[in-house]
Known about the structure:
Radius of gyration: 25 Å
Pfam families: SOCS_box
Strand content: under 5%
Keywords: ANK repeat, Repeat
GO biological process, one term: protein ubiquitination
Family: Belongs to the ankyrin SOCS box (ASB) family.
Organism: Pomacea canaliculata (Golden apple snail)
Amino acid sequence: MTESVDLVSEHLAPLVNLNLRDNEGFTLLMRASQQPSPEGECVNSNSDTVSVIKHLLDSGVNPEARSPDGMTAFEMAVQFGNENWNYVVVLLQHGAKVDNQALLRFIVANHKLIPHAYLTAVLDAMQARGMDFNSLDREGNTILFTKDVYSSISSGQDPSGSLFKILVDRGANPLVPDRHGYSLLRFAIGVDKDYGLYLLKFLVRTGVTTHQPILTDATRSRPKRKDYFDKSVHYMPSPTEAAFKVEDVQAFKLLIESGASNNRELFELIAQLEENCFYKTKVKTEMLNILKQAASQPRSLKSWCRLTVSHALICGTRREEKVTCLPVPQRLQQYILFHDILSEELQTPEEISHHKQSRRERRGFSKPTIIFCCRLGSRSPPNANTEGE
């Protein structure tokens, strides 16, 4: 293989057929794609193997040729145990045919094994090819609903380097609902363990909550009929109502204060909950009082201004950069970014303890993650330990 690489690197004459196969049925491109990437190699480096792959592709080598075991050079480069992501980027840039959804699922499922620089480079290459990170998968979800993605926002980790943020920075929209109309904010209330809390806080930071009333109204105005996807018609509670039902005081306060429900919904919730909530626990009584107070007492001018400015900034992970550019005092910038309601230091120990207990006691609503094998066209059964809806 080394001799072949050296020959190609010296730019063979045009008469040489670079699609020829060796005695085992592999082409030069296939062999090059299987070469271990040098340890510590930088993205977009021009190592010998990368140069060979580029030269072969520029010379018209067929990247879709398959090996005796049915794999293309691209599939060889991404297969487990031979993660030559630098080669993957080059092959993508030169138009290698690939199932975008399958590749994205494979990358998401294995993102912890991929160095950050390679991960962003591969996603950038996919985006340059027209990959839509908001397309729905076979289960009717965008990639942000995947456990591997939302669990990347967890305690003790800097969310700025999370897979969730990386995808949002590349166009994944946290406002796009699933096929049933479930918003990501509503989904966060049903996520088991503490993942839901971190996801909820992250969504508040990105400004999603001020857009939720529109999503809630859109969901409730959808035609109530059965179709191919919706096997049953059921009422879908808003994020605020869902937080009330599971007695998640912490999430409930975050949602109300950050504008996830407009006044009309708050009044409707009071009437509905007082009529249907026959057995009121101590926590539900407390939450109902919070709801009544929020509906009966108008927001302060400062609170209205915060929600208005937050909504005008549009949601996204770069909101903090935009806010810090505003010609206002730092304390007001922090207020616009909801620092006052996001800090656990401002919550009582009882609230934090009850929040954690309530999440342990209920099952989550996350969708099973599809793990794709090295053959990008196939998939393995969902992981048994993924959370069911």
